[in-house]
Amino acid sequence: MALFRLLPRDEAFFKLFEQATDTAHQAAQTLLQMLQDMPNVETYRQQIADLEHAGDTTIHAVMDKLNRTFVTPLDHEDIRAIADRLDDITDYTQAAAERIVLYHATAPYEDSIELVQVLVQATGEVQKLMRFIRNLEQRQPICELCIEINRLENVGDHIYRHAMSELFKRGDVLELMRWKEIFEQIEQAIDQCEDLADVIEGVVIKHA
């Protein structure tokens, strides 16, 4: 272990994480714009697809570097877990956008904009979090950000449950089929933000 501390560490992982996080946040912001400008959904769908492709490229770079790097700034399994969660956030965001177009949604359903606003906030907090993990000794701000992401996930759950209740209550089968899947993808994207925060909390504890 002492030898490992003397060896240089490739910290380019942190830069790649920040790129992936920025991409996830941009995708969430673009999804919000899509819901606020439904006549132009195809334009936003393409923008999110491009962001998802850029995110994939960044995650592939992380995994390639991980396979070629002996001494890393974090444990291999933690780097892999962080990369997976960042990838999933953007993937679920894109999935929501694709379903909006596929199901010919013409107007945002009740609660949809509010739920995506939570996703935008959560990915914004994840952005801040990724810029702290270069120095894991800053435990307090890292933990505060993780707590805030957890709070936002709870807010998202509340909005999601209310939206599902309203969909079933109104009994419109077409709207139920259309928006149930869209809401599920958005909620999953928010969940991945919380899962990522849990991974980072574990990393902080491990390096305490």
Write the layout of secondary structure elements.
Elements: H1 2-6, H2 12-36, H3 41-68, H4 76-102, H5 112-130, H6 139-170, H7 173-206
Helix pairs in contact: 2-3, 2-4, 2-5, 3-4, 4-7, 5-6, 5-7, 6-7
Q: Please tell me how large the radius of gyration is.
A: 18 Å
First-residue to last-residue Cα separation: 16 Å
Strand content: under 5%
Determine the number of helices (DSSP H or I, runs of at least 4 residues): 7
**Uncertain ranges:** 1-8
Counting helices, strands and paired strands, the structural category is mainly alpha
State mean pLDDT (0 to 100 scale): 92
State the CATH superfamily name: Phosphate transport system protein phou homolog 2, domain 2
Biggest sheet record: none
The CATH class name reads Mainly Alpha
What's the architecture, going by CATH?
Up-down Bundle
Domain count: the total is: 1
How many E-type strands? 0
What is the approximate shape?
Answer: globular
Fraction of residues in helix: over 70%
The helix/strand series, from N terminus to C terminus, equals HHHHHHH
- CATH fold-level label: Methane Monooxygenase Hydroxylase, Chain G, domain 1
Describe this protein with a few key phrases:
single chain, mainly alpha, Methane Monooxygenase Hydroxylase, Chain G, domain 1, 7 helices, 82% helix, disordered N terminus
Q: What this model shows, in words?
A:
- There is one protein chain.
- The radius of gyration is 18 Å and the shape is globular.
- The chain has 208 residues and is mainly α.
- It has a single domain (10-206), classed as Phosphate transport system protein phou homolog 2, domain 2 (Methane Monooxygenase Hydroxylase, Chain G, domain 1, Up-down Bundle).
- It is built from 7 helices and no strands.
- The longest helix has 34 residues, at 173-206.
